[in-house]
Amino acid sequence: MCFAVTFTDQLIWGDRDFDSIYIHRIVTHPDFRGYSFVKEIIKWAKKYAAELQIKYIRMDTWADNEKLLKYYNGCGFTYVGVVILQKSEGLPKHYEGISLSLFEIIV
Fold first, then answer.
1. Sheet holding 99-106, edge to edge
2. Which of 26, 21, 16 is nearest to 65 (CA)?
3. Is the pLDDT of residue 87 over 90?
4. How many CB atoms lie within 10 A of CB 58?
């Protein structure tokens, strides 16, 4: 299991980019899928955000991945909406022109 954490995400969250911890690039080896590791990440993020007095845990994923969208809702995230990236400078090339679904948990 690997994931990254940031404290800003202006290109994706725009004006909503404040008081947040952002979880990115969650990757699980296929042999370890199904063990609810995302829920463990969320538990850690809630504790960490509370310690730092951060209000939101946020993440994004491809807007067309219905299975993953349902999974994140099942993990406690609230669906916030879709954003179509207009600017992707500073992001990996595969972010150019894509639609992302946004999710958050209020701590």
1. 2-6, 20-27, 56-62, 99-106, 78-84
2. 26
3. no
4. 24
pLDDT of residue 13: 95
pTM for this entry:
0.91
How far apart CA 2 and CA 10 sit, in angstroms, is: 23
Calculate the alpha carbon distances from 60 to 36, 47, 67, 68, 92 in Å.
Answer: 18, 20, 14, 10, 14
Q: How far is CA 49 from CA 25, 44, 64, 71, 94, in A?
A: 19, 9, 29, 22, 29
Query: In 3D, which of 98, 68, 70 has the Cα closest to residue 83?
Result: 98
pLDDT over 70 for what percent of the chain? 100
Topology of domain 2-106, CATH? Aminopeptidase (3.40.630)
* DSSP β-bridge partners for residue 24: 4
- CA neighbor of 75 nearest in space, from 36, 49, 45, 107: 36
**Residue ranges per domain, the chain?**
2-106
CB 28 within 8 A of CB 65: no
